[in-house]
Amino acid sequence: MKTVYVLNGPNLNLLGTREPAIYGAATLADVRTLCEQACKRHGLELVFHQSNHEGALVDWIHEAGQLHAQGQLAGLVFNAAAYTHTSVALLDAVKGTGVPLVELHISNVHARESFRHHSYLSAAARAVMCGFGVAGYGLAIDAVAQW
Ligand code: CA2
């Protein structure tokens, strides 16, 4: 059974508690449940994490990279949150491991402030999605299951 990594970056632990007009009412626990259901549909194992710390995210990408090297990773679905727009370290981790990446954003970042329009990760992503709300996580896993 292959594994899907779903990683979430800074402040996504606050989902459902503030800014519902942008991010909706679902909590991160709801997102995990949605991902579990999608993985179950496709016979995939789920590893789901959130951190406010860049280095923790780098370490989990490396962990996913080891599974990828063993042919056991279906893909990595990554909402790097604000680090999307700032982090060369996360880009290097994705490039260095070669993990098949879906870059995901809950909101349509292109309809927001201009500093959200640039992503360091997109250059290393196999797919980029935004604006589907938290439903995007399930859609991303549906796509990864076809890879
Ligand atoms: O739309 C997305 O998923 C983002 O990755 C979310 C990030 C933002 O910096 C990106 O530009 C787009 C922010 C995540 C913070 O999430 C919160 C949720 C509820 C309340 C406060 C923050």
TrEMBL record:
It comes from the Bacteria. This is 3-dehydroquinate dehydratase. Catalyzes a trans-dehydration via an enolate intermediate. It comes from Acidovorax bellezanensis. Coiled coil: none annotated. One of its GO terms (molecular function) is 3-dehydroquinate dehydratase activity. Gene3D superfamilies: Dehydroquinase, class II. The lineage of its organism: Bacteria, Pseudomonadati, Pseudomonadota, Betaproteobacteria, Burkholderiales. It catalyses: 3-dehydroquinate = 3-dehydroshikimate + H2O. Belongs to the type-II 3-dehydroquinase family. The record marks R18 as: Transition state stabilizer. HAMAP family: AroQ. Substrate binds at N79, H85, D92, I106, S107, R116. Homododecamer.
